[in-house]
Amino acid sequence: MTKELHQYGIRELQTGLRDGQFSAGELTEHFLRRIDTLDASLNCYITVDNEGARAAANNADQCLAAGNADPMTGIPYAHKDIFCTDGIKTSCGSKMLDNFVSPYDATVVEKLKQAGMPILGKTNMDEFAMGSSNESSFYGPVKNPWDTGRVPGGSSGGSAAAVAARLAPIATGSDTGGSIRQPASLTGITGIKPTYGRVSRFGMIAYASSLDQGGVFARDAADCALILNTMAGFDEKDSTSSEQATEDYTANLAQPLQGLRIGLPAQYFDDAVDAGVAASIRSALDQYKALGAELVDIKLPNTKLAIPSYYLIAPAECSANLSRLDGVRYGHRCEDPADLEDMYKRSRAEGFGSEVKRRIMVGTYALSAGYYDAYYLKAQKLRRMIKDDFVAAFADVDVIMGPVSPTTAFKIGEKSDDPVSMYLQDIYTLAINLASCRHRPRYQNQAFPFQIQYHWH
């Protein structure tokens, strides 16, 4: 091979493994060495499972030799530390779960294990997936591989940075309001947030249950499609899992764009977008137009309601979901509590970081007696209005394109003391999570509508 192993895409690695150009053990060892050499300056990983990765790679080589390998067998990957992984610490980037070793695998983990993929380790993340910069992690901030003085985005910043730095060919992530798309764009790779319910949430520690969705990071869309083929599908253990049949997500990658109708929301191309970001998007749109796509101006009039709606609904759900972390059953427990109430208070005060506490308090307030109708219920009504906008738009266009974030990757610490400014980084990604569209668009009978979002790097 003319390049180093980390420089190849998934299809090339699949070919190399099957042709005997290298073994799964050699491929996995190559990435483990890169992690050992480079990760100290990037902080992508919370846990590296050297022993487990080598054992899984050895099993993969046996399957390859026997001729009964899965298409993804032998391809190593990393998991965002929000997916429970049997025998490996699953911390969610929090002191609260710093001592938690999961006794079972999330469905996503189980599927990739069954495919014969070695797990390199668990990646860093904003605490309990609450953040847009990967600075709220108990384990310290992740650095952007392109400029270590800048953030990689969040909350899945560790996974995005690991793929961008070629410390893993693939990494899983989760997206509640933009946590796959935003770090993917800020690190110059591809990230896919599937339609809600397409990938099982069983074993993915919940932040906001009606918004969370597992997804994937890879070098490009083709690699993402390959891994999504393995990850996606109905799961009876997840009550929100979609029963709609999966498809081969690689099947239409080379499909001509002639006739594709691309929706451009006026609300996504306003003065809030950095000039460089806007120029990059326009350049991409020119390429699509040259390839035969049609650009269509559309409106998503309730987009402006996404920020206030999300930051009531998501904190309310996180307040409920994180109530189980009280120092009693598992997770952090304070030392020498005076009584049960003292244990509850100090365990949660010590275990949660400031951003998590902020969102718990907002959510608890929104759900409290006297305020539920005024805040939470109203936010849910606005959510339906946002969904109706997307349903109407997808009746006329096939995809919606726009920016991910209004700015490029910002400096570490630049927005740490300004929560509102940090929240506005998600202004273009929140709406589709709130909408959770599940209908069939018109273009070539594709199964799911989607957004294509760009960032200038």
Secondary-structure map with pairings?
Layout: H1 10-18, H2 24-38, E1 45-48, H3 50-66, E2 77-80, H4 107-114, E3 119-123, H5 157-164, E4 170-175, H6 181-186, E5 190-192, E6 213-218, H7 221-231, E7 261-265, H8 275-290, E8 294-298, H9 306-321, H10 340-351, H11 354-367, H12 372-394, E9 399-403, H13 419-423, H14 430-435, E10 450-454
Parallel strand pairs: 2-3, 7-8, 7-9, 9-10
Antiparallel strand pairs: 1-3, 4-6, 5-6
Structural commentary:
The chain has 457 residues and is an alpha/beta fold. 36% of the residues lie in helices and 11% in strands. The protein has 14 helices and ten strands. A four-stranded parallel sheet has the order 8-7-9-10, covered by helices on one side. Strands 1-3-2 form a three-stranded mixed sheet. The longest helix has 23 residues, at 372-394. It is globular. The two termini are 30 Å apart. Mean pLDDT is 93; it is low at 439-451.
Task: Write a concise synopsis of the structure shown.
Helices cover 36% and strands 11% of the residues. By secondary structure, it is of the alpha/beta class.
Name a few traits of the molecule.
alpha/beta; 3-stranded mixed beta sheet; 457 residues; 4-stranded parallel beta sheet
- Spatial order of the strands forming the largest sheet: 8-7-9-10
With helices defined by DSSP (H or I, 4 residues minimum), what is the helix count? 14
Q: What is the helix fraction of residues, given as a range?
A: 25-40%
Number-wise, the strands total 10
Radius of gyration from the alpha-carbon trace, in angstroms: 21 Å
Q: How many angstroms does the end-to-end distance come to?
A: 30 Å
Instruction: Name the beta content range.
Output: 5-15%
- Spell out the helices and strands N to C: HHEHEHEHEHEEHEHEHHHHEHHE
Please, what is the average pLDDT? Answer: 93
Name the shape in a single word. globular
* Structural class category: alpha/beta
List low-confidence stretches.
439-451
Largest sheet: 4 strands, parallel
